[in-house]
Design a protein that fits this description.
seven-stranded mixed beta sheet, 112 residues, mainly beta
Length: 112
């Protein structure tokens, strides 16, 4: 059974940084594609970043150059480093694994 638990959300001022973590069990990050999504109320979930089993990464245009997805294969933790945050980055952030496995989400609020 796959279990994904996000942490690291919070309130930050524009231009600030946060690092989200996703502790995974029941799945091996080093061989599976993993995702970070975000969702604003009333809108569909948006794919933010992807990392493949071999470590190839892709990003949404809106976060390219500011966000970095990575993983610790020893600890089996997925990360999302978010720098130069903007108010429009405010959302609930979810990590996701193949076959419809989702975490519970963590709120990120960017506000002065």
């Amino acid at each position: 059974q796959v279990r994904l638990v996000e942490s690291g959300g919070g309130v930050v001022q524009p231009g600030g940084s946060l690092r989200l973590s996703c502790a995974a069990s029941g799945i091996i990050l080093g061989v599976n594609v993993m995702y970070w999504y975000r969702q604003v109320p009333g809108k569909p979930r948006e794919l933010v970043a992807t990392i493949t089993g071999i470590g190839h990464t892709t990003y949404a245009d809106s976060v390219k150059g500011r966000f970095t997805i990575s993983r610790d294969v020893t600890e089996n933790i997925l990360y999302l480093q978010m720098d130069n945050l903007k108010p429009e980055d405010t959302a609930v952030y979810y990590c996701a694994a193949p076959r419809g496995n989702w975490g519970q989400g963590t709120q990120v609020t960017v506000s002065s």
